[in-house]
Specification:
Layout (H helix, E strand, L loop, with lengths): L3 E7 L13 H7 L2 H7 L3 E7 L12 H24 L2 E7 L5 H8 L6 E5 L20 H5 L5 H4 L13 E6 L4 H10 L2 E4 H7 L1 H11 L6 E6 L21 H12 L4 E7 L10 H13 L6
Parallel strand pairs: 1-2, 1-3, 3-8, 4-5, 4-7, 5-6, 7-8
């Protein structure tokens, strides 16, 4: 029997102020994610999109945004947990990175899971360190038990993962307070300098050594980790990022472990894109993660 994948669209733009990432799920579907996964032999189900209010429709400022985001992630958590219990490998397509509070919370409800977090940003801010207050810059801290109480309590109270469960890869744009928080946390991280000096193969080998005791690996992939000359349609672009080929190699190396259980694809903004190139790249990276090889 073929392995089962469930595609779950999460059109959330509540975690940041720039409109457009709520259209990410449509862009990824248009780029052919389901069909390409089917060609790999998977039994693919598209769940459709969960309902999420548009940020601009909320009238009462930050409190309303926090409540709406909490409610959305409660639903995401439930759907993620159910997908895993039903034997699916869920692929969550967003939407901004705040959705991972629910996705990673849900997939770890029954059992711990290794997490590879590929992102230009650390997403390790809290309300006291963030310059913007945008929650899409806080999900790693939230998952580790720091930040808004309402978000920490989603699905089950407290931290959803431990510092030894997650590896951050591709960092190159961090706030000052966030830098200190990451260093103090004990979390494993690799910056773009680490990749430049040592290469993708070395970094991924070290990351996977860190997670070697886990049976399952979740990949949370923020498209802004790529250089904007390659992937222009992202919510918060940062220069001097990964090349398309480097990102492909990352996915291929993780796929070789045969431990991939789920994935987030986040921060695609079709409004800023050119000919849907960023969504097409995202689909090709996802297909590599789930086992497509050159030969």
């Amino acid at each position: 029997m073929a392995d089962k994948i469930k595609i779950i669209g999460i059109p959330v733009d509540l975690g940041q102020i720039l409109r457009g990432v709520d259209m990410g799920p449509s862009a990824v579907r248009y780029a052919g994610l389901a069909g390409k996964l089917c060609k790999l032999g998977y039994d693919v189900t598209d769940y459709g999109n969960i309902e999420v209010p548009i940020r601009a429709s909320l009238q009462d400022g930050q409190d309303a945004i926090l409540k709406a985001l909490t409610d959305a992630n409660e639903e995401i958590y439930k759907i993620a947990k159910e997908a895993v219990n039903e034997g699916y490998k869920p692929v969550f397509i967003g939407g901004d990175h705040s959705l991972s509070i629910g996705t990673i919370g849900g997939i770890t409800h029954e059992k711990r899971c290794g997490v590879i977090w590929v992102d230009a940003h650390g997403d390790f801010n809290t309300p006291t360190t963030s310059k913007s207050g945008n929650i899409h810059g806080m999900p790693v801290a939230t998952l580790l038990g720091y930040g808004h109480d309402a978000l920490i309590k989603i699905g089950r109270d407290g931290a959803k993962i431990q510092p030894e469960d997650i590896v951050l890869i591709g960092l190159r744009d961090l706030d000052r307070g966030e830098q200190k928080a990451i260093r103090d946390s004990g979390i494993t991280y690799f910056t773009m300098r680490d990749i430049d000096e040592n290469g993708v193969k070395y970094v991924m080998q070290k990351a996977l050594e860190k997670l070697q005791n886990f049976d399952n690996i979740h990949c949370s992939f923020d498209m802004d980790v790529l250089d904007p000359t390659e992937a222009p349609g992202v919510g918060t672009p940062v220069k001097v990022g990964l090349t398309y080929r480097e990102a492909h190699l990352m996915m291929e190396i993780v796929a070789d472990t045969d431990k991939v259980c789920s994935m987030d694809i986040v921060e695609i903004n079709p409004i800023l894109d050119k000919y849907n190139v960023t969504a097409n790249i995202a689909v090709n990276l996802a297909v590599s993660l789930f086992g497509k090889s050159i030969i």
